[in-house]
């Protein structure tokens, strides 16, 4: 057997302008980064609050390593569950207003683990068609009857929920949609789900830290209870600036995951030093309201500027502000033209987004300045009028 087949598939990807390449970052995350030997002003990280390189978070990581070491050493159920993990779980439970929280090593694993612990072949899973890949993969893996409803459309969900009986019905949605930036209509989605005896699971990877008065995400933004959203997922690698993820919910939910979530049971615990670092970032998320206020100002400034330039934005009130381009090749051209002007924004293409909806996924951070947003707008003006590269 040869690898010719694989090489042909790679070549086809290249022909379609869908080939992906990694860039090597030589600096910490921040508005200015060093990539492949050059300095750029970056607008594509998920470090929305500017905590990934915060001195207090770094100090906590060092202190955590001094106390607990670097490696988790074992799974949580053997002897890898440290005091740092335990304290972080308790603090996140208080933060989210849920009875308990369970840490996972990544958001991808939290989603695979939670969905598969809750439903199986006898169940049905209902997903927004623009949900994150990890949610879709988790649903398929479960073997449950799998249905997608129209994007952020409670009526479309209600139609699907009212059909044949399943033992358990799990409705799954992003809280903030990762590639579009819009917020799920959770009050209506939860109403429809409860009326049909389902459970609503919300993956708020992009809402935690950014939405709600204390940064507790879209459930705080809408004032929703544990009964409205019984399964709440947060990730720690975005607004929190560290890494890992958690599920928040009732005592029964968390005990179920400890017993049945395979991606919790059969994997090494996250680094306890990272758990300590995350405790520091949680304090900053809650206390430093100015980070959310600053983001709101930058979002408004950017949207206003883009409208004046005639760019098509999406209906997003969050730090995810994609500029819709459409064609993958054109998205690549604009990304390259911006790069030539010292601005780093990667083009997002299929299969991450639907065919024909390639975009520049601009993300803003509380660490950006107004002047930096203005520099982005100036560059967008030049590349649009063809003065590119
Ligand atoms: C990033 C993301 C994940 C995955 O989280 P990781 O911790 O990076 O694995 C899951 N869900 C959504 C909506 C995401 O945007």
Keywords:
PyrdxlP-dep_Trfase_major, pyridoxal phosphate, 13 strands, Aspartate Aminotransferase, domain 2, 14 helices, AON_synthase_class-II, 8-amino-7-oxononanoate synthase, alpha/beta, 389 residues, seven-stranded mixed beta sheet, binds pyridoxal-5'-phosphate, transferase, 16% strand, Aspartate Aminotransferase, domain 1
Can you write the helix and strand succession as a string?
Answer: HEEHHEHEHEHEHEHEEHHHHEHEEEH
The low-pLDDT segments are none
Relative strand content? 15-25%
Task: Count every beta strand, where a strand is a DSSP E run of 2 or more residues.
Answer: 13
Total helical segments: 14
The chain-level mean pLDDT equals: 96
- CATH C-level class of the largest domain is Alpha Beta
Distance between the termini: 44 Å
Given the helix and strand composition, which structural class is it? alpha/beta
> What number of domains?
2
Can you identify the CATH superfamily of the largest domain? Type I PLP-dependent aspartate aminotransferase-like (Major domain)
- Radius of gyration, Cα only, in angstroms? 21 Å
The coarse silhouette is globular
For the biggest sheet, the summary is: 7 strands, mixed
């Amino acid at each position: 057997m040869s690898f010719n087949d694989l090489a042909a598939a790679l070549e086809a990807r290249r022909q379609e302008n869908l080939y992906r390449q990694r860039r090597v970052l030589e600096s910490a995350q921040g508005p200015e980064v060093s990539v492949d030997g050059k300095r750029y002003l970056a607008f594509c990280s998920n470090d929305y609050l500017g905590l990934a390189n915060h001195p207090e978070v770094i100090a906590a990581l060092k202190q955590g390593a001094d106390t607990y070491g670097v490696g988790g050493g074992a799974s949580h159920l053997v002897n890898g569950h440290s005091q740092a993990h335990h304290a972080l779980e308790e603090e996140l439970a208080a933060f989210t207003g849920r009875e308990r929280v369970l840490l996972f090593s990544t958001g991808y694993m939290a989603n695979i683990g939670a969905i598969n612990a809750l439903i199986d072949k006898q169940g049905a899973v209902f997903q927004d068609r623009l949900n994150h890949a990890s949610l879709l993969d988790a649903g398929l893996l479960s073997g449950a009857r799998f249905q997608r409803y129209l994007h952020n459309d409670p009526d479309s969900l209600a139609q699907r929920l009212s059909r044949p009986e399943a033992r358990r019905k799990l409705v799954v949605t992003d809280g903030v949609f990762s590639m579009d930036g819009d917020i799920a209509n959770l009050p209506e989605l939860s109403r429809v789900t409860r009326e049909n005896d389902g459970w609503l699971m919300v993956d708020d990877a992009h809402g935690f830290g950014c939405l709600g008065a204390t940064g507790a995400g879209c459930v705080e933004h809408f004032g929703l209870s544990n009964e409205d959203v019984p399964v709440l997922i947060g990730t720690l690698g975005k607004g929190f600036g560290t890494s890992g993820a958690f599920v928040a919910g009732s005592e029964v939910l968390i005990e179920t995951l400890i017993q049945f979530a395979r991606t919790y049971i059969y994997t090494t615990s996250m680094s306890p030093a990272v758990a300590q670092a995350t405790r520091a970032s949680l304090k900053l998320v809650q206390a430093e309201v100015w980070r959310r206020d600053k983001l709101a100002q930058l979002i408004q400034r950017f949207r206003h500027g883009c409208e004046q330039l005639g760019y098509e934005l999406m209906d997003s009130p969050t730090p995810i502000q994609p500029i819709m381009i459409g064609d993958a090749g054109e998205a690549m051209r604009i990304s390259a033209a911006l790069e030539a002007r010292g601005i780093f924004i990667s083009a997002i293409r299929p299969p991450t987004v639907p065919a024909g909806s390639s975009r520049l996924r601009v993300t803003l951070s509380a660490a950006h300045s107004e002047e930096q947003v203005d520099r982005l707008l100036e560059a967008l003006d030049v590349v649009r009028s063809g003065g590119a590269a």
